[in-house]
Specification:
Length: 379
């Protein structure tokens, strides 16, 4: 195997090792995928400002997030179905992230359950919550997250309804995969993945199946899920969840400064400027393009993070320069997970740390706290 020198190397290996159905789930955006592309393109267009002979020995990528020391200003975003990208994927990603020294966020729609992840790690992780119509189930999830020692709740606000991703519909996405001729033929091309799945008992949505009355298999789960995402989501729901949780609350999926201000008023300890990786409202702006205005509006009142399109340490630097305290990565760590399991997630994080460190030096920065718009080449 060739040396892995960037996230794209992990991406290429990922494409070889993971079945098409789950590659498409990770890679797809909604409808025309315009917003997905904007996330990448708008970050790539931002030029950096090189400095020389500044004297930056002794630099560091360490910082704090919500009062917690971290190795770099990066957290693993909540990503559904990681346990289908690699056997026991959420458990492996959590171990890699927490051992590296950055936060891991477990998705509501994970394959490994809250309890599975809690049993395999020694440090607290974060849990991501969708607002569903069944408030008893939300209360149950919150209670389970508390019992597992989760140190923050990530409330996703931009999934009141599921965005349409054409490939998922055409693939008949399911967990575990439906035994169609097309799917079986594709699985046969991925013996490493199949062997891993054969060694684990975790093949369903671990946070849901067995925890919801009447949901015992994938058929009943699909019907339940279709009814649960709440189009009536409003700020009263957010305030209720804040009270019910009682701990650190991160609100994810904000693109509007007024919404960001309202999130702060409802008790957000951090907000994540995010368009759900281009998977919800196609045609929405890139996350990086709206970050500066939101950071200027609320940055003094709570931490502002960015999610969407981050694939390198340079992307991290650009986000910080435009007002973010940190970034969340999704696809970048999934590529490592699908390619190499736990070591692949560690590799992804190490690549980003090296790139961030090198770019900081070339831009004349010693610490994360020093990074501002001076590192950008603005005409």
């Amino acid at each position: 195997m060739q040396p892995i020198t960037c996230i794209e190397d992990l991406h290429r290996l990922y494409l070889k090792r993971v079945p098409r159905m789950f590659v498409d789930y990770c890679e797809s955006g909604s409808w025309t995928e315009t917003t997905l592309r904007r996330n990448l393109e708008d970050l790539a267009r931002i030029p950096l400002h090189q400095r020389v002979a500044v004297g930056v020995e002794g630099g560091t990528t360490t910082t704090t997030l919500l009062g917690q020391d971290v190795a770099l200003p990066v957290a693993l975003a909540p990503v559904g179905l990681c346990g289908m990208q690699h056997a026991d994927g959420e458990m492996l990603a959590a171990k890699a992230a927490l051992d590296f020294g950055v936060p891991f966020t477990l998705s509501t729609m994970s394959v490994c359950s809250i309890e599975d992840v809690a049993a395999c790690v020694q440090r607290p992780f974060w849990f991501q919550l969708y607002v569903m119509r069944d408030h008893r189930f939300i209360e149950s999830l919150i209670d389970r997250a508390k019992a597992a020692g989760c140190s923050a709740l990530v409330l996703t606000l931009d999934l009141q309804v599921m965005g349409q991703r054409h490939k998922d519909i055409k693939n008949g996405l399911s967990t575990p995969p439906k035994p169609t001729l097309r799917n079986l033929a594709n699985l046969a091309l991925h013996p490493r993945w199949c062997a891993g799945m054969a060694r684990t008992r975790r093949h369903q949505f671990g946070n849901i199946v067995g925890h919801v009355e009447g949901v015992s298999d994938m058929s009943s789960l699909a019907a339940w899920t279709a009814e649960q995402f709440d189009r009536g989501l409003n700020w009263n729901d957010v305030e209720w969840i804040k009270r019910r949780w009682g701990g650190k609350l991160i609100m994810k999926g904000v693109l509007d400064p007024d919404d960001a201000r309202r999130a702060v008023e409802c008790g957000a300890d951090a907000i994540v400027v995010s368009n759900h990786g281009g998977r919800q409202l196609d045609g929405a702006p890139s996350s990086i393009s709206v970050l500066p205005e939101i950071a200027a509006r609320i940055g003094k009142d709570c931490e502002v993070w960015l999610d969407g399109g981050v694939r390198s340490g340079q992307d991290v630097l650009k986000a910080l320069a435009l007002g973010a305290r940190a970034v969340m990565i999704g696809r970048a760590f999934v590529y490592g997970l699908g390619a190499l399991g736990e070591s692949g997630v560690t590799t992804a994080l190490e690549l980003i740390r090296r790139e961030l460190d090198l770019t900081m030096v070339l831009c004349g920065m010693r610490t994360i706290a020093e990074i501002d718009r001076k590192v950008l080449h603005e005409r």
